[in-house]
Specification:
The protein is mainly α. The chain has one domain. It contains 6 helices and 2 strands. A two-stranded antiparallel sheet has the order 1-2. About 3% of the residues have low confidence.
Amino acid sequence: MRRLAWVHWKSLAMELFVVFVGLVAALQVDQWRERRDLAETETVYLHRLSEDLQGYIAFLKTAIPMLEDHRRAVAHVNDSFVAGQILNGDTALFESGLIFVAHLPSISRPRPAYDEMVASGVFARLSPDLQSAVSELYATQTTVESNFIWWRDQPIHVDEALQPFVEYYSDGERVASTKYALGTENRRIRYDFDQLRSQPVIRNGFYWAEDTHSDWVEWSNRLLELAETAEAAVTRELNGR
């Protein structure tokens, strides 16, 4: 009788063990599937983020030379006012500075993939190096965006002050030589140099406008550097998968 009872309990224990092993195995399979799904989701987001950053980098590489041309033209106007004459007789560059003084295009960051990664919790699971690189880019861009209106105020005021003293028109020539690559439209401008220089609002405005354009070039180059660093970190993360 005791032997039968022992056999019964042994059989029951074996059945319980088999059930336990089955549950553990099923749980491990579920966990493996969950990790796989998370990894696939992270990879999809990383590819999207990489595409966003590559597009952002391409835009900055196109925009920065234009911004540098505008800065150089505005600086030429300021330097000419200080010298009391159009420096080097370069009227084309001087005109470009008058026309493009308020041309400070905003630079929008690539948000969709990053915002979704943060909201879904995917971003928090990525490597610390990647998080640091991407976060620094977006934090810097936020700073730039928050100050953009302030940056544009002075050049816009200068442009408004110019209006009573200049006349814009178009002709068959570029507004500047290909050396400066400013603009694609045939925009020209009529003005009296001495009259412009005699206006303190215009003269002093170009002094500050040069500073503003220099800041915009500097920050744009900084954003390009950070974007390239972030994109490289994303690429390393993808290559490690």
